[in-house]
Amino acid sequence: MFDFLDSGQYDLLGAFWTTTQLAVYSAIGSLVWGTVLVAMRVGPVPVMRAFATGYVNVVRNTPLTVVVVACSLGLNQTLRFSLGADNFEDIGFRMAVLGLVAYTGTFVCEALRSGINTVPVGQAEAARALGLSFLQVLTLIILPQAFRSVVAPLANVLIALTKNTTVAAAIGVTEAALLMSEMVENEADALFAVFAVFAFGFIVLTLPTGLLLGWVSKRVAVKR
């Protein structure tokens, strides 16, 4: 049933390694972009608040496939924006990461905003009374507590991100979903085995993340 694994025809580990890289780079970028978005959304500048609110509401409700394909067709093929890559595979990979960051950052932003709402308003008021600027209040007092209170929701976002990397196949990135599509066409007599292998692969990628961040959430939870 699993003879196709021994044939050497399919680079299964290579495909999952690409998926892992997509997930890791996109997770780092999403955390950074989501933090910037939430800073703008709760900030004192009306233009930034309006931009962040509009961006989150529009991108979060746009299908991820549309976002990723737009990065590939719009930024790369139309505007010749390649993020420094000089070959098709690298360009596709970087466009996929960019699309995943642009999309997932909105969910990180909303998770952090819910965490900010758990921080007592009196702490920010006391900090401002001491002469701290908005940026100092946000980075030294608000965000550290917000991150601690939303570790579990962020874990769910990162798990969803790992599964969403399959959308990169839409622009030809050679990750797990693209290889699975090829194997489904070539191994029609072993469809159950193909699906089982890829389901197990994604479980291996996502389950440790959930368990680890669940443990971290309990360890760093803010006691109210």
TrEMBL record:
What is the annotated localization of this protein?
Answer: Cell membrane
What GO cellular component is one of the record's annotations? ATP-binding cassette (ABC) transporter complex
A Gene Ontology biological process in which this protein takes part is: amino acid transport
Q: Which GO terms describe its molecular function?
A: transmembrane transporter activity
Topology term for the membrane? Multi-pass membrane protein
Residue ranges annotated as coiled coil are: none
- Pfam families reported in the protein's UniProt record: BPD_transp_1
What are the record keywords, sorted?
Answer: Amino-acid transport, Cell membrane, Membrane, Transmembrane, Transmembrane helix, Transport
- Does Cell membrane show up as a keyword for this record? yes
Enumerate the transmembrane spans. 22-40, 61-79, 91-109, 129-147, 190-216
Is Cell membrane included in the keywords of this UniProt record?
yes
Family under the similarity heading: Belongs to the binding-protein-dependent transport system permease family. HisMQ subfamily.
Q: What is this protein called?
A: Glutamate transporter permease
